Amino acid sequence: MGDQPDETGGQAQAGISRRDLLRSGVAGAVGLAAGAGALAGAGRRNAEPRPSKSEGMHNETEGDVDLTAFDATAFLKNFDFGKVSTLPSGQVQREYEITAVDREIEVAPGVHFAAWTYNGTVPGPTIRCTEGDRLKVNFTNGGSHPHTIHFHGIHAADMDGVFEIVEPGESFVYEFDAAPMGFHLYHCHALPLKRHVHKGLYGAFIIDPAEGRPEANEMLMLMNGFDTNFDGDNEVYAVNTVAFHYQRHPIEIEQGELVRVYLGNMTEFDLLNSFHLHGNFFRLYRTGTDLERYEWTDTVMLCQGERAVLEFTYDYPGKYMFHAHQSEFAELGWMGIFDVKPRTLV
Ligand SMILES: [Cu+2]
Question: Is it true that the peptide bond before 123 is cis, omega within 30 degrees of 0?
Answer without folding.
Answer: yes
